[in-house]
Amino acid sequence: MAISRNYETETKFLLESTWGTTPESSLEKFKVKGGSIKSVHTVEQDGEIHADRQVECQSLVSEHATGDYTANLRYCDVQHDIFQAAMSASAWTTVAISQANDISAANADNSLNSSGSNFGDLAVGMVVKIGGFTETGNTGLAKILTKSSNAKVTISWLTLTDEAADAGKTITIDAIYCRNGETLKSFSIEEEDAAITQFKQGTGMSINTLNLNFDANTKAEQSFTLLGKEHNLTQATIGTGADTAASTLCPMDSNADIDRFYINNAVTGVTNKQVQFNIDNGLIADFQLGTTTPAGLGLDYFNLTSELVLYFEDETFFDYFQSQTSLELDFVIKDSSDNYYVFTMFNGKLMDEPVIDAQTPDGSAKMVSATVKGFEDSTTTSMFQITRIAGS
Question: Is 26 contained in some domain?
């Protein structure tokens, strides 16, 4: 019999509607670099004193599933589900505005204006894709800075040129985003070993931690850990019908695909050595009398940090630290098909003094390492936002 190799294993995900219950649906394959799910057992022995030095009784008192994976960052449905679960978001919010003869751009206050008050779905902090204007500088990604009414918003990232709502011109404003919330999301996960027709399965698998790493000379990478309900090894799939094929889109690249990086809505203008975003949900398993598997999972505080290694004028970051100025971070990455992910930390504070690691040969800039911790933003009532924008 041939030896089974790791590369013959296929990993599949399915977002659950009810924690710990696999929906009747096909599983979707997801390409991972490494990791697996496993079972954790707690066994108790009697602990009684015996003349023959033997331990007579033992019993399984609890069991649950855990898992950890590393994977490249790739624009696909499973990735969207992973982000939603890590953010404990109830759903992705979709904004799709398409108006003819209605929306104009004004340079004076960098605003978009709707004569028909069609901006009801826009909210401060959203990252949107604007299209349809004749002036090319009026189209592209933008961030909503203020919203004075359903007829007027101001934006950043684009410098608008005056442009009227001409007859026959249709302006589009689109975005899909989620913000951190308090709705526990979970997966049924299956690992199929094709060589021996074995299926390793986990249900109620919720994301405990998620690390997004953008490092020079590497693919954009993620690692995440999971805590779940049950783990099984069987010879039958838990999926219904044929599996959905994994995405064939190329992974995002930390060198070629970084689109831009903003600090307080201004382009940093510096070389980014490394940027990380780290989420920790602090999941707790709820064990109850009468069953060995958890009855549910509890969410702790949403903990968010960002690790930055940047070539930056050192006094700028030190000023942020000394004054405890709030930092708003936006990290934009896209793939070769122009699919975007935008990661937004709304209210970050430097918790430790930045460290100068090195400097450029002429001494004009220094490489600074800093840890930024996220706090709730009063305007958006959230810490973190992930935006996805599909390529046209």
Answer: yes
